[in-house]
Write a structure and sequence with these properties.
By secondary structure, the protein is an alpha/beta fold. The chain has helices spanning 14-24, 32-45, 56-66, 83-90, 136-146, 200-207, 213-217, 237-248, 250-273, 300-312, 328-333, 341-349, 363-375, and strands at residues 49-53, 74-78, 95-99, 121-127, 149-153, 161-162, 165-166, 173-177, 190-194, 286-287, 294-296, 335-336, 350-352. Helices cover 38% and strands 13% of the residues. Bound molecules: pyridoxal-5'-phosphate.
Length: 378
């Protein structure tokens, strides 16, 4: 692709931090660089505790373990999401219960959540799609009323806010991703944000193979041992060192992405006015982080033709997600609550445009190709 869909951005300091990790001779997890990442996330999100993980998937799996989600329990979530949201809970034997999304933000429709609750419901897992927050006020109130845990899949949400509060700090637990496709990256990477003090210690244990090794490292016990269920969820120091370089520049990366997002939004206004597409919607009480610029075309055929025309010009435009409720594993392990019409329709009509730090210089070419593809449909 001449203009790829994604291109990882490097700040230029990653290798020097990795050299320091190398010189420190501490390459396993929870060294100096991991601690710096944890502190940065705590300082910048206001979460209770941050624990670096090797992926957002790992942080979601830790959430399921921490909330003691088990066989037969149900977890309410959108179908319009990445597989890890559902997999994390299905792995514990729970049933993902899929509800439809709102037509404006493509986030889980808060007005449908309460009707999906059964005596088996244990938790709600929201997904802040495209780094735009769900209606956390409404969903939080439902969870409190029914005694349900609230998990935020904030994989795409670093630096986004809801009513002034950073995503990941609003639920009982939150999960961030630093995968190469995200705004701030370490190749693979993530973090668990723990907002309930009663879960802090178990979160450390679950992350360290079910042992109290963290207490041992702090000198609180004289040997460490197996105390609970857990797995290996922490990254090594090389990955954490890479991430420190990215976190140093995270605000600047976000600023540049927001500028690209704004140019897309301005370009697309005319086409929205002509009824050929719909632009993303960001509610007034949310700020977003320009994780994604998507367009909704009127039909699946229009979307497929648009992507084909951009691809022919060497421009990487993609679609996602195949709704989980209609996927092979979703049918086997999950359950759809009601009609998921908005999910199905959005999935068929959505296209994601190239958005990465550095794509600025190619945007005129992207707009010209997209204009030609849209003019062909007028
Ligand atoms: C909504 C959502 N949840 C979870 C994940 C998984 O993140 P990771 O690749 O860090 O495990 C992603 C990544 O694409 C995502 O977009």
């Amino acid at each position: 692709m001449k203009i790829p869909f994604n291109q990882p951005f490097m700040t230029g300091r990653e290798l020097s931090y990795i050299a320091q990790a190398h010189a420190n001779r501490h390459l396993s997890g929870d060294g100096e660089f991991t601690r710096r990442c944890n502190r940065w996330i705590e300082d910048n999100t206001g979460c209770g505790r941050a624990l670096l993980t090797h992926s957002c998937t790992a942080a979601l799996e830790m959430s399921a373990l921490l909330l003691a989600v088990g066989p037969g329990d149900e977890v309410i979530m959108p179908s319009f999401t990445f597989v890890s949201t559902a997999n994390a809970f299905a792995l514990r034997g729970a049933v993902p219960v899929f509800v439809d999304i709102r037509a404006d933000t493509l986030n889980m429709d808060e007005t449908l959540v309460e009707a999906a609750i059964t005596p088996r419901t244990k938790a709600v897992c929201v997904v802040h799609y495209a780094g735009v927050a769900c209606d956390m006020e409404a969903i939080g109130a439902i969870c409190r009323r029914h005694g349900l845990a609230l998990v935020e899949d904030a994989a795409q949400g670093i630096f986004s806010t809801y009513r002034g509060r950073p995503l990941g700090s609003l639920g009982d637990l939150g999960a961030l991703s630093f995968h190469e496709t995200k705004n701030v990256i370490s190749g693979e990477g993530g973090a668990l944000l723990v907002n309930r003090a009663d879960l802090y210690e178990r979160a450390e244990i679950v992350r360290e193979k079910g042992t109290n090794r963290s207490r041992f490292l702090r000198g609180q016990v004289d040997k460490y041992t197996w105390v609970d269920l857990g797995s290996s969820y922490l990254p090594g120091e090389i990955v954490a060192a890479f991430l420190v370089a990215q976190l140093d520049d995270a605000r600047e990366i976000t600023r540049r992405r927001l500028a690209v997002w704004a140019r897309y939004h301005e370009w697309a206004a005319r086409w929205e006015h002509e009824g050929l597409l719909r632009r993303p919607v960001v509610p007034g009480d949310c700020t977003h982080n320009a994780h994604m610029y998507y367009l909704l075309l009127p039909t699946a055929a229009a979307r497929d033709a648009f992507i084909a025309q951009l691809t022919a010009k060497g421009i990487g435009a993609l679609f996602h997600y195949i709704p989980l409720h209609s996927s092979p594993a979703g049918l086997r392990y999950g359950r759809a609550h009601g009609d998921l019409g908005v999910t199905t329709s959005s999935s068929e009509r959505l296209v994601r445009m190239p958005l990465w730090t550095g794509v600025e210089e190619h945007l005129d070419e992207v707009f010209a190709a997209a204009d030609r593809a849209l003019v062909a449909r007028t």
